[in-house]
Amino acid sequence: MKFNKNLENLTNYEAGKPIELVVREYGIKPQDVIKLASNENPFGTSPLVAKRITELATNAHLYPDDSYFELKDALANKFNVSSKNIIIGAGSDQILEYCLHAKANENSAVLMAGVTFAMYEIYAKQVGANVIKTNSQTHDLAEFRKIYDTHKDRISVIFLCVPNNPLGECLDASEVYEFIRYVKDETLVVIDAAYNEFAKFKDAKKGIEPEFIVQNFKNAIYTGTFSKAYGLGGMRVGYGIASQEIINELGKLRAPFNITTLSLAAAITALSDNEFVQNGIKSNFEQMVRYEEFAKFHGLEYIKSYTNFIILKFNEQNASQIVQNLLKKGIILRDMKSYGLNAIRITIGTAVQNDRVLAELDEILK
């Protein structure tokens, strides 16, 4: 059977191993498994959200309000924009996909950092676009500009992951705004802000403001998610904020009822519990210090992170083997081999989870 030629050189996205797989393969009890591989919220979701989901469980047979009015209104109030500037997706990934389908094709190119979220490249290749990556692994905007100047007639979409997944580094908001002004209006700049709540908490200069994007740029979109700081990874709710022109065009790609009734209610409720979100972020950076100190003690390089995860780089040790050894003990971390790095990405867990992970890592490195 013949398939679309754009699929020929595509590989599947490699997600973190699920708890169920570790239970089956190694015979470990589910309660003894620690999963810190997919940047999920270790505190779960807000108790208010859990209560609301339970209350609406009997409505699972009903489609949601496809206008998503209440969620858009809540996001509009939070970010001081109009609800007409917002589109809702099944995770922010879906908004990223819309952007590629709306702007890129086999005659265009997509620009991104050397190491960044893998789905940018996958979505770009799905529409036949050429992928251009910087030589620098992180976001070197001088290199972005140089590449853009060379290929500006072809580059239709530029991805800026702020902060960057999977490395954790983060541009200042002023740098992002200056770069958007540099590119021409026909080039769509996608600001993937999935971890922006974390970056803004750690350093105010890193916080991207959707209101500023809408008011000042016709060629940029801010994408956010409920999967990280809000603890709704399993509910799959994301959003895009941009000019009405961009939102209207992306809306043509959106299928009806693209998030569920329970997901919609969960997201609306999650926005009302800011205390839960802020407490989780505060704990995240308090616990991250422990990994930084661990790395320094063992002479490991790490990337200063503005997210809910940290990268530990290894020289003499094989990171893939370390990940495999920990997996057998019920600890799931992310091997960075697929990104060409001898490194491990660790989601920052609870204090108890981090106790165990650091103890096991310490034993291995000894």
TrEMBL record:
It catalyses: L-histidinol phosphate + 2-oxoglutarate = 3-(imidazol-4-yl)-2-oxopropyl phosphate + L-glutamate. It comes from the Bacteria. Its cofactor is pyridoxal 5'-phosphate. Its EC number is 2.6.1.9. Residues 32-360 form the Aminotransferase class I/classII large domain. The modification N6-(pyridoxal phosphate)lysine is found at K228. Keywords: Amino-acid biosynthesis, Aminotransferase, Histidine biosynthesis, Pyridoxal phosphate, Transferase. CDD domains: AAT_like. InterPro entries: Aminotrans_II_pyridoxalP_BS, Aminotransferase_I/II_large, HisP_aminotrans, HistidinolP_aminotransfase, PyrdxlP-dep_Trfase, PyrdxlP-dep_Trfase_major, PyrdxlP-dep_Trfase_small. Pathway: Amino-acid biosynthesis; L-histidine biosynthesis; L-histidine from 5-phospho-alpha-D-ribose 1-diphosphate: step 7/9. One of its GO terms (molecular function) is histidinol-phosphate transaminase activity. PROSITE patterns: AA_TRANSFER_CLASS_2 (PS00599). Homodimer. HAMAP family: HisC_aminotrans_2 (MF_01023). This is Histidinol-phosphate aminotransferase. It comes from Campylobacter suis.
